[in-house]
Amino acid sequence: MRPRTGAETWRSIVHLGTAALAVVCFALSLAATAQPTGKVFQIGYLGNSTPSVEAALVEGFRQGLRENGYVEGKNVIVHYQWADGRMDAFPVLAAELVRLKVDVIVASGTPGSLAAQRATKTIPIVVAAVGDAVAVGLVPSLARPGGNVTGLSAMAPELEGKRLQMLTELVPKIRRVSVLMNPTNPFTAAVWKETQAAGAKLGLTLHAAEVQTVDAFEGVFAAIVKTKPDALVVIPERLFLSHRKRIVAFAAQHRLPAMYSFPEFVDEGGLVVYGPNFVDMFRRAGWYVDRILKGTNPGDLPMEQPTRFTLVINSKTAKTLGLTISPSLLLRADKIIE
User: Fold this and answer.
1) Is residue 204 a contact partner of residue 177, using CB atoms and an 8 Å limit?
2) DSSP three-state, residue 41
3) Is residue 124 within 8 Å of residue 64, measured between CB atoms?
4) Order of strands, edge to edge, in the sheet holding 205-210?
5) 292 near 298, Cβ under 8 Å?
6) 157 band by pLDDT with thresholds 50, 70 and 90
7) Cα-flanking dihedrals φ and ψ of residue 61, to 5°?
8) What is the DSSP string of 226-268?
9) Secondary structure class of 304 (helix, strand, coil)
10) Is the Cβ–Cβ distance between 105 and 54 less than 8 Å?
11) Of 284, 320, 323, 315, which Cα lies nearest the Cα of 302?
């Protein structure tokens, strides 16, 4: 074998050095990609009621964050603000989150979402389980939100019709229905319109029972009794969720079959719940937060409507009311409480 010249040896050394340098640079590039940036993101959470009332929703949101690589206290800090069922508290709470200069605000429900939108036009807002986002003016279109607001809309076509239909399946002879609602919630108008349309198709007479404050419950309950309804429908409202024991007790006292929107009502002895899977919607909000923190403009993220609905029936309450649950409802139920 011919011995290498000095020039050949030098070229080999240079070639090896270049290859080694390329390997080192590639390895450093991979490490830089794999390692976190070290930034701790700040998230504002605007809740309707209290941590105990919305514990399941908060856990759903935390699960959504974890699924996308975020752990509270490590790479995200969540600043919780709770309205405790008082709508007049939202503007102050939203302003506080803006003052903290959070990276994104997660708002629960229509009043909180509107307050957040009024408080800032620059901080991204993810709405979780807002009512009808278009009707209340949060976004011009679900497909193209366009501004700093996106997330999940709880309004689904024919939802109120399905609630009333299921109630008539449970109580075939009902003709008069009282509808408990809070007119100060912007979402209520859209739901009431849908409920009236569904009631007309089913031949039901509906009576609006309006509760605006905690102090109004007893007076409204007395008015409901005077109308002698056959059943009660409770429109989605966090004020009602906070006072669910009071509402369920009233329905039981007057032997009123009642349809609710939140599963917590059935846990307290309410008859039946049908509505979106709110925990799943809050989990999904974590996905929206992740996309925004990675640089996606919220206005480019289409809003979603619920795809999963939950039917829960309290068979014990049904027996107390002398009702027979049809085989059709039993088959459709996600959960039967014995």
Assistant:
1) yes
2) strand
3) no
4) 205-210, 176-181, 231-234, 258-260, 272-276, 309-314, 335-337
5) yes
6) low
7) -65, -45
8) HH--SEEEE---HHHHHTHHHHHHHHHHTT--EEESSHHHHHT
9) strand
10) no
11) 284
Pairing of strands 104-108, 76-82: unpaired
Q: Cα separations (Å) of 310 from 24, 55, 191, 206?
A: 54, 18, 18, 24
Do 334 and 292 meet the contact criterion of CB atoms below 8 Å apart?
no
CA 88 to chain centre: 20
CB 175 within 8 A of CB 203: yes
pLDDT digits (tens, 9 = 90+) for 91-137: 999 999 999 999 999 998 888 999 999 999 999 999 998 888 898 89
Closest alpha carbon to 315 in 291, 293, 290, 337: 337
In DSSP notation, 272-334 reads EEEEE-HHHHHHHHHHHHHHHHTT--GGGS--B----EEEEEEHHHHHHTT----HHHHHH-S
Report the distance separating Cα 211 and Cα 36, nearest Å: 49
- Tell me which amino acid residue 277 is: N
The side-by-side arrangement of strands in the sheet containing 104-108 is 76-82, 41-47, 104-108, 125-130, 149-153
- CB within 8 A of 18, min separation 6: which ones? none
- 34 vs 69: CA distance, rounded Å: 12
pLDDT of 30 reads: 42
Please tell me the least confidently modeled range out of 13-17, 74-78, 277-281.
13-17
* Residue 156 CB coordination number (10 Å): 16
Cα–Cα distance, 124 to 293 (Å, whole number)? 9
Spacing of C-alpha 274 from chain mean position: 15
For the beta carbon of residue 214, count every other beta carbon within 10 angstroms: 13
Task: Give the mean model confidence (pLDDT) for residues 207-216.
Answer: 93
Handedness of CA 108, 313, 232, 190 (dihedral sign): positive
Taking CA atoms, 84 is separated from 81, 234, 248, in Å, by 9, 19, 20
Q: What is the mean pLDDT of residues 56-71?
A: 96
